[in-house]
Structures are given as C-alpha cells and as structure tokens.
Write a structure and sequence with these properties.
Radius of gyration: 21 Å
Structural class: alpha/beta
Number of strands: 15
Order of helices and strands: HEHEEHEHHHEEHEEHEEHEEEEEH
Low-confidence stretches: 1-15
Shape: globular
Strand content: 15-25%
Largest sheet: 7 strands, parallel
Amino acid sequence: MLGSNHFTALSAVVVTAGAVLAASGAQAQERIPGEYLVKYKNRNFTTMLSLKSTPSMQIADHNTFGNLLKVRINGAQEISTLVSLLKNPNVEYVVPNIKMHAQMQSVQGVDSVVGIAALQEQWANKQVGVEKAWSLAGNKGSKNIKVAVIDTGMDYTHPTLKSNAITGYDFRDGDADPMDLTSQQNPGHGTHCAGSVGGSGLVDGGIVGASADVSIMPLRFLGADGSGDLNNGIKAIDHAIQNGAHVISASWGAAVPRAQAQPLVDAVQRASNAGVIMVMAAANDGRNNDQTEVFPTNAEFDNTISVAASGPNDEKPSWSNYGKGTVHVASPGLDIMSTLPGNKYGKLSGTSMATPLVSGITAFLKAQDPSLT
C-alpha cells in the first residue's frame, strides 16, 4: 500500500503528465503526434542516455549542447511513459514537439522581375538610410561578421548571394546542403531574408542588403512548405552559437504558451549568454505581443531584438504584431524587394521581411565595433 506522501507525489506526477499533453492545447493541430522533447538536468551525455529506448518509447534525436532528447512515445503508453519520465529525478521538463512556421504574411504578389528599374525598388534601404551609414563608415560591413539565417535555407548559388555565402547546414534533412527548396507555400522565404541581410550588390541592377559585405551562414530547418519542428529549430540556434555566428536572424515562430516553448526560450538564452545577438520576427497576427505569447520573439534577454513591420510611411500594416513591452523596433516589411531562388527577385511582405533588415544593420554595426551588444 502506498504511503500518503508517496500517493500525493504520484498524483502530482500524473497531473503534470496531463498538463504536458495539454501544454499546447490551443495549438493542438501543431503538435507532432507522439513526439516530445526531454530536458535533462545533468549535462553528462552518458546520464542523458541512461534512459534507453523501449517498446513504448524510442530515442529519436539528441542535442548535447542543449541537454535535450527527442523521444517518440507510442500512443497506447503515452500517459504511463510520461509519468515515468517526469518521475525521473534527472528530468527537468518534458514538452510536446511542435511545428514552427515562417512569419510571411502571404505568398500572394510574389513577382519575379527583370530589369534595373524594378530591381532598384528597395524603398526599405532608403527609408532606414543604409547608404548614408555606409558613407559615414567608409565600408558596407565586413566578412568577419557572421550572420546565421535560420530559415527555409538559401539559394547559395544566386549571383547576388554567392560571394557572401559560407558553409551552413540542413537540419530538416540532416545533411550539409541548406538549399532553399520552393513550393506554393514557400517562394524562397530564406533566400529572400538572406538578400535583405547581405545581398552583395555586385550584380548590375541587383539588390543590396543592409550589410553588403558579410558572411551569411544558411541554416535550414523549415521545409518547402515553410514549416519545421521545435527540435530542429533549437538545434539550428545551437549550431549557430557553436560555429561563431555574431547575429542570428529568425523570421519564424509559433503562438504557444511559454511552458510549451521552454526549450526554445532556453536556446535563445544560450545565444544571448554567448553574446550572439538574436533578431526575431514579431509575427503577423495583428496582435499585441504583450498579451499574446509568441516564441521565440517573446523570449527577451540582453541580446535579443523583437521586430515589427512598417510600411513606406512608417505606418504599421494591419497584420503586424506589436507590443510596447515586448517588441523593440519596427522595420520595413511591406512589399520588400529581395532575392528569390533561381536567379530571381521579387517582393514579399511580413515581419519575416522586417527582421533580416534589422539583422543586416546589426551586422553592419558589429563590423564597425565588434564589442557592441
């Protein structure tokens, strides 16, 4: 017979397991069935793997830098397996693995264009005065500064991007080729973001990023449909930290409670603690982020910048999120001209487009003074 204290403790674990299952209740459709991220307290890898795969649970992935395991739990044993995990004294928390999405307002109006006049429609650069900044500095940045563009990948063969591209990685497919794969849902989101960060301007009539001299590290975890999972997004952030990124540009996220996003919040904190400036899209729901939890953008630490979108008259597009306490700056994000895969260019809108301009400006400023936080 269980003692009263033991029974109370076990009841609490069962309640907690139920809470884990309901953690993303409002976003139940975003949960990846049967997949969970397990955060271990002990950084010793051997201890992390003391939990072995069983018929009811398989270890699918590990992240020693983030102290995380991804596990798959068979549906029939889901509650009992979660109870067992949460009773483990070395487990800090367990959350469902969920989907992350590119923060693009829509794929409507994507316009592959040809001609110098059309390619010079970079109103955003004029609005924020990047050319004046280049003139004052006497340079357009430095290839010593690395910007990790964590996204759908990048067309690193694009004439406007290839001179600034450095080695990246594809966490979606688990290989070293972070090529941006397009679809009806993804016209080239990551390639477009990369152009705003660091289009070289070397192509006659082509676009130029806020930091035309920079090193762009493409890290792919969003697929051709513009979505990816929490686990791979975290791995991409940790890869950027470990491989010398000075800036991370993150034009993606999910509207979920902080408890569900805790491993992502932890990853943003690891970046901040390492001195990596993380620039994140505020999202496109037209909501106040002081009242709506969106991650990673609401993970506020010393070295984070949350970005809303603005239009040509410094107006807020109706779809841009905002927040006096949680959003730090607005940046041009409406009808932004940039690079698209296949040697193309086009206009997209969203806080996704606002974010890489801030990332590029941040990289340009870091080139002038690497000690800036």
